[in-house]
Amino acid sequence: MASSLELALLYLVAAVLGVAACRSLRLPPMFGYLAVGVAIGPHALALAGDSVGMQYLAEFGVVFLMFVIGLEFNLPKLRSMRALVFGLGLSQVGLTVLAAIAGNATLAWVLSMFGRSWGLGWQSAIALGAALAMSSTAIVVKLMADRLELETEHGRRVMGVLLFQDLAVVPLLVLIPALGESAEGMTRALLIAALKATVLLTLLLVGGQRVMRWWLTLVARRRSEELFVLNLLLVTLGLAWLTEHAGLSLALGAFIAGMLIAETEYKHQVETDIRPFHDVLLGLFFVTIGMKLDLRAIWDQWMLVALLTTVPVLFKFGLVTALARGFGATTGVALRTGLYLAQAGEFGFVLLQLAGQGKLLPPQLQGPVLASMVLSMLATPLIVLYSNRIVMRLAASDWLLQSLAVTSIAKRAISAEAHVIICGYGRSGQNLARMLEAEHIAYMALDLDPDRVRQAAAAGQNVAFGDASRLKSLMAAGLARATAVVVSYHDTPAALKILRLVRAHAPAVPVIVRTIDDSDLERLRAAGATEVVPEAIEGSLMMASHVLALVGVPVRRVIRIVQDQRDARYGLLRGYFHGADDDTVEEMHQARLQSITLAERGARHGQTLGQQALDPLEVQVVSLRRAGGAALRPGRDVVLQAGDTLVLSGRPEALALAEKRLLEG
Question: Residue 345 in contact with residue 121, Cβ under 8 Å?
Fold first, then answer.
């Protein structure tokens, strides 16, 4: 029998291989975890048993998932999306559970007419319906983010439903274990659980927020990242332990911990720090789920698996589409919302596991249900990929509505000539538009936030609802007649997509791209960006100009210095000096700065900078300082002297070769 260490190593090796394979195929990592779980599980290669220790470790994945979801549930967000969350979301979950109860009763009645017993009670139907009502937040949000659809009409509806599903898990985690009791015991268990939850939630949410802010502030003042992370783990697992010992669940405590932190100023830092624990442990949870799949049993019951896969997917698609239509969505938006939410979800596995532990589902049914849920999730990327084609076939009016949207853009841009197309109308886009208006330069702005577009258009600004990453929208905005295109939001995948479209259909039009820093600068320039404006560089230039002015440098000289830096195309600030915290995989391949001081007796003394042949190495000399402190402009004809300090910019491997060449001759 394998030791705990050997099992842990096996899980980790399998997880690494699975995730690496999915990354290369551009699939969500969850598929890799499930696949390797099936492969090493007792029903396939039998390399690992379903050990209690690993199960308990994997359960922490669910705990941290609930913690992250709790971080998202701040009250302002819920208020802004209340119609979608508590209207559309509540209706979808509630009606799915009711449909499962009705379907179970109908099936039992039909079988009784033939003298056969179905064997599943209404309690089992509730548990099964709750598990099938869930959709995959991990898969759908990732796919929508990649397709730039989070702020679209259907994207907002999908997020509203997913948000309610995640919230609904909290009471379901309490309800499903109680369903396994007798009628009298279930009522008593639910009442006790409700009382405990009310008391605990009141104590935690009334005074807990103040205590949490005080405690995190106290820890943050110690300025220790290690101490801060340890306290996060302590708070999360401590509240999970508290709720479990109160007769509730681990996940509920983690959810409360997330909610308490969500209202503090440390929310974003906490999200960053907790992410590695959440991702790794949730991955182990998916591995254990994959291990439960019995491929032989699925093969023997393939008809049942196919039925359990197609019927819930088609039902959820129809139900969500009808509900979205009822809540005011157009046919095309409703169909897309239904397609994106038709699959099963990760919390469905959690609820199914609880139902199995409470003996609400017979063992022979758990395997097919589990397999059908996994298959529906595996089909999701394909459904999303072909969603436009499916919608076009099912709703001819959607093509008309898309045409109307493009027509509205074209109507606004029809008289525009030699104008600027602004992709994104956030703060940067609006500031640019005001400056263009002041100079009497025409512009056409595209944005995907309907509220922002409506308010800006009502104020007389030339903005229209449209996706700038789609060719139809750009052409309708007058791409062929534009003098420039500006990508005003920092989203590199979207910017690359826009660059490809502009280069293919209007190669003469310059494109200016905004980024946070210079990490993607070369990629964007290689894709055709005329200029890339990193916020970090512009911020540092502005800070430097203020510092120079405050220490007495004349304003005209300050302006000239800053302009010289911009003229140098950000060459001085494109790199960075290497530090102990820069050894990440991404940082190792980015340009950096390195200082090299020439020895007193060196082979390079008396030679010019141009003779060092640094250009073939793709290394640039950013600055040169003499031993006496004088700074020189690093031209090719500058003669090197003993004690010169050169600041070089380039990639790590190239800098190493340049250093060897300069110091060893």
Answer: no
Q: Are 36 and 287 within 8 A, CB to CB?
A: yes
Sketch the domain layout of the chain as residue ranges. Answer: 4-393, 411-529, 587-664
Q: Tell me, what's the pLDDT at 581?
A: 46
**Closest to 409 in 3D by CA, of 392, 427, 391, 422:** 422
| HSE (side-chain half, CA atoms, 13 Å) at 443 | 27
Q: How far is residue 17's CA from residue 377's CA, in Å, rounded to a whole number?
A: 20
pLDDT of residue 394: 78
Rounded CA gap, 134 and 377, in Å? 11
Cβ atoms < 10 Å from Cβ of 553: 13
Of the candidates 210, 167, 211, 214, the residue with the CA atom closest to the CA atom of residue 73: 167
Report the helix count and the strand count for the chain, using DSSP H and E: 28, 10
Q: According to CATH, what is the number of the domain 411-529?
A: 3.40.50.720
For the domain made up of 4-393, give the CATH fold: Na+/H+ antiporter like fold (1.20.1530)
N- to C-terminal Cα distance for the chain?
61
Share of the chain above pLDDT 70, in %: 83
- Average of per-residue pLDDT across 341-346: 86
Phi, psi at 14, each rounded to 5°: -65, -40
Rounded to 5 degrees, φ, ψ at 564 are: -60, -40
pLDDT at position 124 over 80: yes
Question: Closest by alpha carbon to 277, among 237, 313, 244?
Answer: 237
| DSSP one-letter string for 102-156 | HHHHHHHHHHHHTT------HHHHHHHHHHHH---HHHHHHHHHHTT-TTSHHHH
Higher local confidence (pLDDT), 284 or 576: 284
Average pLDDT over residues 239-267: 77
CATH for 587-664 is 3.30.70.1450
Q: 157 CB contacts (<8 Å, ≥6 apart)? A: 84, 88, 324, 327, 329, 333, 337
Question: Is the C-alpha dihedral spanning 207, 213, 216, 221 positive or negative?
Answer: negative
Q: Which residue carries 């789920």 as its tokens? A: 289
